[in-house]
Design a protein that fits this description.
The protein has one domain (about 45-460): Alpha-Beta Barrel (TIM Barrel). It has helices spanning about 5-10, 40-50, 60-75, 95-115, 160-165, 170-190, 210-235, 255-260, 290-295, 310-320, 340-355, 385-400, 430, 445-460, and strands spanning about 80-85, 120-125, 135-140, 145, 245-250, 260-265, 265-270, 275-280, 300-305, 330-335, 360-365, 370-375, 380, 405-410. It is built from 14 helices and 14 strands. Mean pLDDT is about 90; it is low at about 1-15 and about 460-469. The protein is an alpha/beta fold and about 475 residues long. Helix 11 links the parallel strand 10 and strand 11 (about 360-365). It binds phosphoenolpyruvate (PEP) and cobalt (II) ion. The site of cobalt (II) ion has 5 residues, from loops.
């Protein structure tokens, strides 16, 4: 055991294990958003098999992330959480994984440089296979089938066979998550994040951006800093090749989450070892529901989505359930109000949480409150609204004396055309060109980097942002 680990164990407050809790106690509560499996015995076989498979993450990584999130809550670092709305089994391939990692790393370097603080990087990947849906069924041309709930449950094609929930998919999701994780770990250990790699800074996108001068200036400044440090040290700084990366997914499919909940030899309590950072979605955040019951008993740091319509009193009670000991780093509140609601909805939560002295990290998800369906039936989000919610969130926090310590984004490293606007001002016509998401529309590579730069401008206090598209 390393020194860091011993220190961590000593410093942790003596938090009690959750009372009257087992990894299966969620079954005594109402579990919404769960599929109905026709073959109960097959489900049990898959869950039993999953239970024996090795975990994807370790308890010490999970606890290390918790410490970093506690730092972010105190303003000593910034959380960047991002990735696909939902991963799909067919997208488990090297170029998609590498490109997604690349855009997240580049965004994080923009943030490190601009905010002058470390960034904690958390991918929405290696397990983001389950999706909450607004309806249990979908009807097309008079035919009604179960809805698509993500590749861990069923397949998106509109046929009865594809939509039948299949418990073998639990194993396939775990396997694909392991492959993703393995590749990400390999890339990072192998120097993928090395600032010296010329291919690392792909500048083509900036030619279309009003932010191009600023971006080029920043790339040069980072290069200068690295060279300066190396001159000073008289050697190449190996640690510039290494960054930490953590994973997250929505803890939605409770049979899966239960099967990956483990005890470990050197730490007390239970850990979800399929991911570092599970979160509870908007639709499953009921105080007396199964998801809050499951999550309260694990030691992972976790996220909780907070959307419009939630009352501060409700939120405070869920915070009490998930973090009764007010442990720093344990809980990240991910607000997703929408650009038009954020000014009316966010301040009450900030004041209530602050007044009760709850220790939380505030993070803004400017994606999920800003979805819209065009007349053509296409689901999209406007870059201007995404940006406006983020902008407002920073201002509202400043006015309330709280701190916005992170951002949660749906993005991809590909040049998809799913969100309208951005530097290239994508229009409705462009959407048809490269719309690939089977669920929510994502920021593409350029739009993601633009958001990172806009955060820096906002936090750095630079006035007047270029006009929104
Ligand atoms: C999501 O993050 O993909 C999601 C469904 O979010 P929310 O729970 O905030 O709606
Ligand atoms: Co989504």
């Amino acid at each position: 055991m390393s020194n860091a680990m011993r220190v961590d164990e000593r410093n942790l407050a003596p938090v009690n294990e959750a009372r009257d809790w087992t990894p299966a106690s969620w079954k005594n509560r109402t579990a919404v958003q769960q599929p109905v499996y026709a073959d109960g015995a097959a489900l049990e076989r898959s869950v039993a098999e999953l239970h024996e498979l090795p975990p994807l993450v370790t308890s010490w990584e999970v606890l290390a992330l918790k410490r970093k999130l506690s730092d972010a809550a105190e303003g000593r670092c910034f959380l960047l959480q991002g990735g696909d709305c939902a991963e799909s089994f067919s997208d488990c391939n090297s170029s998609l994984i590498a490109n997604r990692l690349k855009v997240l790393l580049q965004m994080s370097l923009v943030l490190v440089h601009g905010l002058k603080m470390p960034v904690v990087r958390v991918g929405r990947f290696a397990g983001q296979y389950a999706k909450p849906r607004s309806a249990d069924t979908e009807t097309r041309d008079g035919v009604t089938l179960p809805c698509y709930r993500g590749d861990i449950v069923n397949a998106p094609e509109f046929t009865a066979a594809a939509r039948e929930p299949d418990p073998r998919r639990l194993i396939e999701a775990h396997t694909k998550s392991a492959m993703t994780m393995n590749f990400v770990r390999g890339l990072i250990d192998g120097g993928f994040a090395d600032l010296h790699h010329p291919e690392y800074w792909d500048l083509a996108w900036v030619e279309h951006s009003p932010l191009q001068d600023e971006y080029r200036h920043m790339v040069e400044a980072i290069g200068d800093s690295v060279r300066f440090m190396e001159t000073l040290a008289g050697e190449s700084l190996g640690s510039f090749n290494k960054v930490d990366f953590y994973t997250s997914h929505e803890a939605l499919l409770l049979n899966y989450e239960q099967a990956v909940t483990r005890k470990v030899p050197r730490h007390w309590g239970w850990f979800n070892l399929s991911t570092h950072f599970p979160w509870i979605g908007m639709r499953t955040a009921a105080l007396d529901g199964a998801h809050v019951e499951y999550c309260r008993g694990i030691r992972n740091p976790m996220g909780l989505k907070v959307g419009p319509g939630v009352k501060p009193e409700q939120l405070l009670r869920v915070i009490d359930a998930l973090n009764p000991d007010n442990e720093p780093g344990r809980l990240t509140l991910i607000t997703r109000m929408g650009a038009t609601n954020v000014e009316a909805e966010l301040p009450q939560h900030l004041s209530a949480v602050k007044a009760e002295g709850k220790r939380v990290l505030w993070c803004c998800d400017p994606m999920h409150g800003n979805g819209e369906t065009l007349a053509s039936g296409v689901k999209t989000r406007r870059f201007a609204n995404i940006r406006a919610e983020l902008d407002h969130a920073f201002d509202i926090h400043a006015a309330c004396g709280t701190r916005l310590g992170g951002v949660h984004l749906e993005l991809t490293g590909e040049n998809v055309t799913e969100c309208l606007g951005g530097a290239r001002d994508l229009t409705e016509i462009d959407l048809a060109r490269a719309y690939k998401s089977t669920v929510d529309p994502r920021l593409n590579y350029e739009q993601s980097l633009e958001i990172a730069m806009l955060i820096v401008r906002k936090r750095g206090g630079t006035p007047a942002l270029p006009s929104a598209k």
